[in-house]
Amino acid sequence: MMHESCAEIFFHVAGVEDVTSTDGLTLIAEIFTVLGRPSGSPDPGRLQNINYEAVTKIDLRPFWSRGSSMGANKFDWRALSYTEYSFVLERPFEFPQLVDVAPSRVCPFEDAYMSDDNILSRQPIDIIEYLLPFLPLPSYMALLSTSRYLRIHALTTFQRHARRFALDLPWAIPLPGYDSEDATLQGNVADKDISLHSADWLHYLSEVHTRPSMRARRWIWQLAHALKETYLEQRQTSP
Q: What phi, psi does 114 have (nearest 5°)?
């Protein structure tokens, strides 16, 4: 039904951190009781009553083909790798490194105070910063793109706001208890308890929205939520 990494995400979304606990084993048993076992041909591995395509806007059904016998269905991984959905093949636990702000990112904007002359650059910076917590992420990013004056503050003064946005994306940070020995997690990774406010969180936000592994993780996270919601809804009427 799902691989280990996907299962870890699902159990976390479902509020179960230890799959071997009573709650974890009960959840596994109840999912099959409530939703039924995963489908066979022509929809191998899919749980019933979950509209995978509606949830993620990604349809992987065209890559399946029927085999000549039971359990011999084939998935065309190579064909998928040449499509816009190739990111789903990435490992969903390769997180961006959280680094300090590189001087090369700040230098192009150092003369912003001298060159910018617009209504925003003439406002006290504390007034602008007061408004930032009220903005959703798309509006925040759009605002920072309006002037070089705001861009340099985004890379310095406003990093704590980018940090808040990043930590508010549950799929964009490692799960609690993540294996720190994993080679993909060596170095600095985002952590709400220990990560510095002064790190380059703006860069991290960009990376988690564009890096293929993070796009795969977000895709899995959406499916995990859909599975949880469908399970809870049907559990109420299940015998």
A: -85, -35
Count of helices and strands (H, E) across the chain: 12, 2
The H-or-E segment that residue 47 falls in is: none
- List, for residues 193-235, the tens digit of each pLDDT value: 766 777 899 999 999 999 999 999 999 999 999 999 998 888 8
Cα–Cα distance, 19 to 92 (Å, whole number)? 19
Q: Which residues contact 15 (CB under 8 A, 6 or more apart)?
A: none
d(CA 6, CA 138): 28
Beta carbons of 100 and 198 less than 8 angstroms apart: yes
Q: What's the pTM?
A: 0.82
The 8 Å CB, 24+ separation contacts for 64-72 are: 66/41, 66/42, 70/40
Residues 6+ apart with CB under 8 A from 63: 75, 76, 77, 79, 80
pLDDT tens digits, 51-108: 889 999 999 888 888 777 766 778 899 999 999 999 999 988 888 888 888 877 776 6
3-state secondary structure of 74: strand
- CA of 229: how far to CAs of 1, 7, 31, 49, 50, in Å? 17, 16, 11, 11, 10
Instruction: Spell out the residues 6+ positions from residue 77 whose beta carbon is closer than 8 angstroms to its own.
Output: 63, 89
